[in-house]
Amino acid sequence: MSALLEVRSVKKHFGGVRALECIDLSLDAGRIYCIVGPNGCGKSTLLSIISGEQRPTAGSIWFAGKEITGISPSRIARMGILRKFQAPSIFPELSVAENVECAFMAKRSAIERLTTTRHVASLTELLRTIGLEHRAEMLAEDLAHGEKQWLEIGMLLAGDSAVLLLDEPTAGMTMRETQQTVELIRRISSDHGRTVLAIEHDMSFVAGLQCEVIALLRGKVLCTGTYAEVSSNPEVREAYLGTASHV
Ligand SMILES: Nc1ncnc2c1ncn2[C@@H]1O[C@H](COP(=O)(O)OP(=O)(O)OP(=O)(O)O)[C@@H](O)[C@H]1O
């Protein structure tokens, strides 16, 4: 089976700063991947190149067998690669259900909008997936921090997404919220078949996902493997505060 998303020999230089050096990645449909690495190693730059916000200095990005290098972020989003930033992009003055409704509206055709029974079923199912069915009528601005993040993930799911790019999805969350986010992302992959590529610093989150981990260091892929494999790699441990006990 060919990969859904491929990063081929991607470099990104900002003047003399070599943010990325010859990155190759191959992501399969429906699987979860986590990028880890110290501050400044190129994690955000890599996500920005995949989502089209930045052009690589060299190399290419391929999605579902087509080259998407240099395509605008909005076209890439319409093709099914959606990015979530740390600060949630939700409509605070709308209810939780209305927020998800907006995401459904953005993708549905006029005829589909008229088939309300099917739509109500999808809305209810989606709210259940993100654990917010009991909050459907609550204003989004009144949600707890973690719930706002789950709502935005739900909005990405409601759109025609094949790949979700998540930028530190558990930043600022309690341990319990982090654990619930692990469960949500695993459901997104197993039940909804979405590919997830997340950047994360919280190693309990990375370990909980039980996914392929990609360790970056100074713009290069240092190693890939399970959390246990990557976290026991001496170079990875060295990169995190010398012998880093938190990896
Ligand atoms: N627009 C830019 N102009 C110049 N240098 C940049 C730019 N964006 C990123 N860099 C540099 O590229 C390198 C990689 O940055 P990047 O933000 O991708 O790292 P990161 O791993 O996401 O870091 P963090 O974990 O702190 O978010 C850093 O040295 C950074 O200073």
Automatic annotation (TrEMBL):
Highest taxon of source: Bacteria
Record Pfam families: ABC_tran, BCA_ABC_TP_C
Nucleotide-binding among keywords: yes
Alphabetical list of Gene3D superfamilies matching this protein: P-loop containing nucleotide triphosphate hydrolases
Record GO terms (molecular function): ATP binding
Keywords, ordered alphabetically: ATP-binding, Cell membrane, Membrane, Nucleotide-binding, Transport
UniProt entry tagged with the keyword Metal-binding: no
InterPro entries referenced in this protein's UniProt entry, alphabetically: AAA+_ATPase (IPR003593), ABC_AA/LPS_Transport (IPR051120), ABC_transporter-like_ATP-bd (IPR003439), BCA_ABC_TP_C (IPR032823), P-loop_NTPase (IPR027417)
Domain ABC transporter: 5-243
Protein name: ATP-binding cassette domain-containing protein
Species assigned in the record: Variovorax ureilyticus
